[in-house]
Amino acid sequence: MKNNKKIYIETYGCQMNVSDSEIVASILTEHGFENTHEVTLADIVLVNTCSIRENAEERVRKRLQYFKSLRKKRPELIIGLLGCMADRTKTALMEEEQLLDLVAGPDSYRHLPQLLAQVGTGQKAIDTILSTDETYADITPVRLDSNGVSAFISIMRGCENYCSYCVVPSTRGQERSRDAASIVREATDLFVKGYREVTLLGQNVNSYDWKTGNTAINFARLLEMVAQVSPLMRIRFATSHPKDISDELLYTIARNSNLCKAIHLPVQSGSNHMLDLMNRKYTREDYMERIQAIRRIIPGCAISTDIIAGFCNETEDDHRDTLSLMEWVGYDAAFMFKYSERPQTLAADTLDDNIPAEIKDRRLTEIIHLQQKLSLAKNQDEIGKSLEILVEGSSKRSNNQYFGRSSQNKVAVFNKTAAGEGEYIQVKISGATSATLLGEVV
Ligand code: SAH
Ligand code: SF4
Ligand code: F3S
Predict the structure, then answer these.
(1) Which strand ranges, in their side-by-side order, compose the sheet holding 234-238?
(2) Distance 10 CA to ligand 1 centre (A)
(3) Is 96's pLDDT higher than 80?
(4) Ligand 1 mean position to 166 CA, how many Å?
(5) Distance separating alpha carbons of residues 189 and 296, to the nearest angstrom
(6) 303 lines ligand 3 (CB under 6 A)
(7) Where in the chain is the domain with CATH 2.40.50.140?
(8) What are the distances in angstroms from CA 170 to CA 16, 88, 175, 281, 294?
(9) Is 297 within 8 Å of 250 (Cβ atoms)?
(10) Ligand 2, atom 5: nearest CA belongs to which residue?
(11) By alpha-carbon position, which residue is closest to atom 8 of ligand 1?
(12) What residues does ligand 1 touch, defined as CB less than 6 Å away?
């Protein structure tokens, strides 16, 4: 089967894309291709792209220019684009700028071997058709850049929430869930191979829905099934939409010690006016009620979020509503962004991107500063506690230290002992920054 062609895959964007690149690697190695981590050794470069904000696309374009320069020296080098930019930018990047030989959208990866064969005959190859049922359920991903301890499992694809700012429904298409049995099988296989943490991925995992015979499996049930693979396997998930995070799910997490006590619940804004324009389908009050439910049902659960600064028509009062909600929740962590208008979204079609860049910048800076303060306070609360840490590897700063995570998803750094990667170890926390806990093995 070997064809001696080496593939170099570079991934941008979210965890879902990381997981997709592993599916691509699996499909291609099944067809005789080989993976390489060295672009200089590659016959084929595949860039798995993200469209979520304009700067994400700009980074990819710059990188493609670099690959084009390599192709000048090695004309046989094939350059392909995968992922969320595929449909939107194929004409510009392929025909006008002559940057690409191949374009494949997120649901076309099974066709990559044929598409590459087509490129081999000197033609360009494009397939960006979105599917209503592709979940790659039967494909065992090849774990790229793996630490051998934690891995992603895609449990659904697409999104139909149509948040007005968001490009994902147009780049990834209709929402569909993956066969529950195949998810449990993948988790079991990972456990047997020594993995100790899986993150179940979907744009809105709370709407997971799979039917077998007369039984419907919702997300809470799926989580419990995966939790039963082994008490030594930790399970995380992303992302939850605040409008559908149920008490049933929270009780399931509370009941199973290996379901991690950390919930990522993107709020986007603290202002009802913004939430309405964003088409998020919940109010500030609804969101606060869900936070109270988390605090009540899962005491000590970490909560993180995503925030967008400077969305259309955002006033200073709206912005202050975001800051006050952040304080009220006391987030453990947050991903914070400036609004970036995306083509083919409701906001681009119906709203004016009317907040000047300097104001967006200033509001984002205020949000980031506040979050640093909140993260530090949350991390300082851990000082004196003894936490169960899953060791992931050597610390980047020092080879004498390990780093790992607590159930609450906090990174802890501590001196190496006999335990190693993939093992659980009790660490007493003695110090904290806004990003890291420091401690000693007990
Ligand atoms: N499905 C997930 C997240 C998808 S994208 C969810 O609904 O939470 C990750 C984050 O990127 C979003 O939560 C949002 O905060 C941010 N984002 C999405 N579109 C954006 C845009 N046009 N400009 C700025 N940030 C955006
Ligand atoms: Fe985008 Fe909203 Fe879907 Fe998340 S839920 S991917 S923000 S449309
Ligand atoms: Fe992910 Fe970016 Fe696509 S965030 S779903 S890779 S647009």
Answers:
(1) 150-154, 197-201, 234-238
(2) 21
(3) no
(4) 6
(5) 35
(6) no
(7) 386-441
(8) 16, 9, 11, 19, 32
(9) yes
(10) 161
(11) 266
(12) 52-53, 165-166, 168, 203-204, 239, 241, 266, 268, 306, 308, 337, 339-340, 342
- Estimate the crossing angle of helix 284-297 against helix 316-329, to 10 degrees: 10
The residue to mutate among 308, 314, 336, having the most atoms of ligand 1 within 8 angstroms of its beta carbon, is: 308
- For the chain, residues classed under CATH 3.40.50.12160 are 6-127
What is 386-441's CATH superfamily?
Nucleic acid-binding proteins (2.40.50.140)
pLDDT of residue 328: 98
**Counting ligands in written order, which one lies closest to the CA of residue 264?**
1
Can you tell me which residue has the tokens 């298409």?
Answer: 173
| Strand (E) or helix (H) holding 394 | strand 386-394
pTM: 0.96
Pairing of strands 401-405, 386-394: antiparallel
Where, residue-wise, is CATH 3.80.30.20 in the chain?
150-378
Nearest CA to ligand 1 atom 19: 166
CA of 119 to the centre of ligand 1 (A): 34
Determine contact, residues 163/348, Cβ cutoff 8 Å: no
**CATH code of the domain made up of 6-127:** 3.40.50.12160
pLDDT at position 98 is: 84
pLDDT band for position 94 (cuts 50, 70, 90): confident
Domain spanning 150-378, CATH class:
alpha beta
Strands (E), 395-423: 401-405, 411-415
